[in-house]
Amino acid sequence: MSGEFSLIDRYFTHRTRHTLLGVGDDAALIRPRRGHVLAISADMLVEGRHFFRGSDPEALGHKTLAVNLSDLAAMGATPRWATLALALPKADARWLAAFTRGFMRLARAHDVDLIGGDTTRGPLNLCVQIMGEVSAHQALRRDGARVGDDIWVSGTLGDAALAVAARNKKIRITKQQLAAVSQRLDQPAPRVALGMALRGIARSAIDISDGLLADLGHICERSQVSAAIELAALPRSALMRALAGQPVAQSALLAGGDDYELCFTAPASRRATVLRAGTRARVRVTRIGRIIRAPAGAIGVAVVDGDGLPVRVAQRGFDHFG
Ligand code: ADP
Ligand code: MG
Questions:
Q1: Tens digit of pLDDT for each residue in 110-144?
Q2: What is the distance, to the nearest Å, from the Cα of residue 241 to the centroid of all Cα atoms in its chain?
């Protein structure tokens, strides 16, 4: 791409705080703090697949980093460094300035250094690798859930999916309602502070990017357990409550993606501690069910009513249970 180096100088070279050598060499040099390990994850956003053509570049800059921060939140890691690999159809200065503004605002808010990347011409494609630090025995993994653990989620579920449903004309909602759920879809708030506050408390965690049933299912598979969640206990936004009973709302709640809330498990003895962690992180946490023994050959997530009876669910994702 012509002017590649001035693009890099202009948009991608920023002050760093935790980095020995950042943008400008063949590789960056970083050193995790003593006693910590690196937590590393990458997520790619592709135009037409993860976002609509013509999406607002500033929101896209935010979301590109946010989905990556969410993965570190789910590990309980402290985010520190990111690389950014971009394919751009053309060097559009306005687009790049707005994208970088959204990206760097979130990076600064989480004290993340942009330490390198790659810039090339091609169909719009945004790929971040994020790196953070966590002490090895405190990382929140998917394989730590135990029978008897409580299951918790942060925030409210299904709002991003409601925004998609509204844009696709599957539901009719007011302008204000659309604005509220669009915010959830376009500019998700990764639960980094909560993930860090849950270190040493939660036994397992995952971020909800593919819907509660699918993602809690991943905890179950990795931990060789099953889960029972109570439909009425799931945290709902005002709009979700207003749409109660509509099938679109129920599948958004249980199987909608893109919320970037955390789902985690913790021993029942730690309920008060979990609630305090939520308060400290300024995010609501809600207990939604329990980890149960997996019946032979049937690991998965059951949705039950207040009496513990199975609820019929239209869209379950991958689930084989019940
Ligand atoms: P190389 O030829 O060694 O791959 P590049 O010319 O691609 O190097 O990049 C020059 C420097 O700019 C490197 O330090 C690289 O990490 C950084 N860089 C390139 N693109 C980006 C980007 N989009 N965001 C952040 N850093 C970038
Ligand atoms: Mg390169």
A1: 999 999 999 999 999 999 999 999 998 999 999 99
A2: 23
